[in-house]
Design brief:
With 313 residues, this protein is an alpha+beta fold. The chain contains 7 helices and 15 strands. Strands 7, 8, 11, 12, 13, 14 and 15 form a 7-stranded antiparallel sheet that branches. Strands 1-2-3-6 form a 4-stranded antiparallel sheet. α4 packs across α5. The chain is globular and about 60 Å long.
């Protein structure tokens, strides 16, 4: 999967849900299906499912899973000097039966089995989303006081770490203080949980800063992003799950950025904006998407990959 290039002429049939029979299915998330390869490795298949407002939508976005996988793989390679990650370099097609290889082509990774930290590690460089709502209510985000008078989408004086709980599918993540995050890690991981939470905080800020500097050189602002971390049997922290994709981050074009508005973004915000025009209670079942919304969203994902990874489509 390393160095994958997406071809505009190779758009695959959308995959809403994988059906690998040669490996045990461990679970399905909002986007990813997870299979057991053996006692120390997993196969993660990134589908074309899209969730909005924590609800899985009925219409897949063509090539979304391939874009997310290629982008995450790009960042794993680029940021590997900061912290170890989950990648193994094993070809996903080598761990499934021959008739299942099309399901994993370009959209799967074979990764290490690691124990996940029970928190979302969110790094923020700009005041937007739930952080903006928290700031309006309290002048702070996750207990971190910010200067008064900031506007929506303002650049923060420095990036901040704002952890959140991990919600089940259909539930909402909850922003929490760093002290609560450490306590939660101790409850789940054990006595070294607090130290691991501190490592995750430091790694998240370092990863965000380097990625944001790189993206700025390609005309993209990374407003915020969510990382996940896991621990191996020796207690070593690893970067896991997806990394700096349009699903886990807010990417804004620098040319259209200004304070006081929610800038346009290279992600599913186009879908969210459409759904906000409907009489929908943001609970399952979700409405169907018009073809124009599906195609525009697919184009946004692909453009983000091209601009960041530099590979021609």
């Amino acid at each position: 999967m390393r160095g994958a290039i997406l071809s505009e002429n190779a758009v695959c049939t959308p995959l809403f849900e994988s059906s690998i029979k040669s490996l045990p299915l461990l679970g399905r998330g909002k986007v990813r299906d997870i299979y057991a390869v053996d006692s120390d490795k997993l196969l993660i298949v990134t589908s074309d499912r899209l969730s909005a407002f924590d609800v899985i939508l009925p219409d897949p976005i063509p090539d979304k899973g391939r874009v997310l996988t290629a982008m995450a793989d790009f960042w794993f390679a680029r940021l590997g000097h900061i912290i170890p990650n989950q990648t193994t370099g094993i070809d996903p097609s080598s761990v499934v039966d021959a008739d299942e290889r099309e399901q994993v082509r370009g959209r799967a990774l074979v990764v290490k089995r690691l124990k996940p930290l029970p928190i979302e590690a969110v790094a923020r460089g700009y005041l937007i989303g739930s952080g903006w709502k928290d700031y309006q209510a309290s002048g702070a985000i996750c207990g971190i006081a910010l200067p008064p008078g900031l506007h929506q989408a303002a650049k923060l004086p420095q990036p901040i770490f704002t952890p959140a709980t991990k919600a089940d599918v259909g539930d909402h993540d909850e922003n929490i203080s760093f002290e609560r995050a450490k306590a939660h890690c101790v409850d789940v991981i054990g006595s070294n949980g607090a130290a691991l939470a501190e490592q995750a905080r430091d790694a998240a800020i370092a990863l965000y800063c380097e990625a944001a500097d790189y993206a700025a050189g390609r005309g993209i602002i990374i407003a915020d992003t969510k990382f996940e971390f896991g621990v191996d049997a020796d207690g070593v922290l690893h970067l896991i799950d997806e990394v700096l994709t349009p699903d886990s981050s807010r990417f804004w074009p620098q040319s259209e950025y200004r304070e006081g508005i929610s800038p346009p973004s290279f992600d599913k915000q186009y879908v969210r904006d459409y759904l906000e025009t409907l009489d929908w209670n943001k609970k399952a079942p979700a409405p169907r998407l018009p073809e124009e919304v599906i195609l525009r969203t697919a184009a946004k994902y692909r453009e983000a990959y091209v601009r960041l990874a530099g590979n021609a489509l």
